[in-house]
Design a protein that fits this description.
Elements: H1 9-22, E1 37-43, E2 56-62, E3 69-80, H2 94-104, H3 118-130, H4 134-172, H5 174-207, H6 212-219, H7 223-227
Parallel strand pairs: 1-3
Antiparallel strand pairs: 2-3
Helix pairs in contact: 4-5, 5-6
Length: 229
């Protein structure tokens, strides 16, 4: 991300592109076959003032007369973010959504309703965590450890219930045994303890200042239930 307009920006991007090209060189017998190199620059300034609506530039080496691509393994991608002005209801593709997030992240208080894809949920959780102070991050890590321990306990209970169900099935019929084992294991090992454990974890996370949506993602509880704690 380039945060301010710079002199000779195009030259600078070309200079940076030369490093991954040179690093592919091999000593001795080498045929000069190169892997593709992409330079992607997300800009908060405008360098092309002649095309107001054109913000997504993809540049390759071309023949100046035929206009055909001369070499397709070196590509420069420039995104002039000030030119991207779509509103939330105008987002038509994943590309639009990512640009919208990058353009407005500092102003967004929570994940917009339009961004339903799981990747955006994880992105906003990561962005929230990135703003933590050292103390808040320590509390978060502690709560995360508690959550992971809890998940391991539940996974073990499910695994044990499955095993007991299979063993019982050997005695009175596989299907009946599995069903009984699952019913007994789920009922005793999960249903009775899981909800209470979830609530305990949620209380600890809430006491440590973890955001409600993060607690919901970790425990599976809904936000209303968390707010009542």
């Amino acid at each position: 991300m380039q945060r301010g307009q710079q002199l000779f920006f195009k030259e600078r991007s070309l200079y940076y592109a030369s490093f991954p090209i040179q690093q592919q060189g091999k000593r001795g017998d080498w045929d000069y076959q190169l892997k593709a190199v992409y330079v992607i620059a997300i800009l908060n300034f405008v360098f092309d003032h002649t095309h107001d609506g054109y913000f997504h530039h993809e540049v390759q080496l071309t023949d100046s007369k035929t206009r055909e691509v001369f070499y397709d393994k070196l590509t420069f991608i420039y995104l002039e973010m000030p030119k991207f002005n779509k509103k939330e209801e105008e987002l038509d593709s994943m590309f639009d959504k990512w640009l919208f997030v990058l353009r407005n992240l500092t102003r967004l208080m929570e994940k917009p309703a339009t961004l339903q894809e799981r990747v955006f949920t994880r992105f906003f959780e990561a962005a929230e965590i990135a703003k933590f102070t050292v103390e808040e991050y320590h509390h978060y890590e502690t709560s995360l450890k508690v959550y992971r321990d809890w998940r391991n306990t539940i996974d073990f209970a499910v695994q044990k219930a499955t095993k007991e169900g299979e063993q019982k099935g050997m005695q009175i019929g596989m299907q009946k045994g599995i069903e009984k084992g699952f019913e007994k294991g789920i009922e005793k090992g999960i249903e009775k303890g899981m909800q209470e454990e979830k609530l305990n974890i949620a209380r600890q996370m809430k006491a440590n200042g973890i955001p409600t949506h993060t607690i919901a993602a970790c425990t599976g509880l809904d936000t209303e239930e968390i707010n009542r704690l």
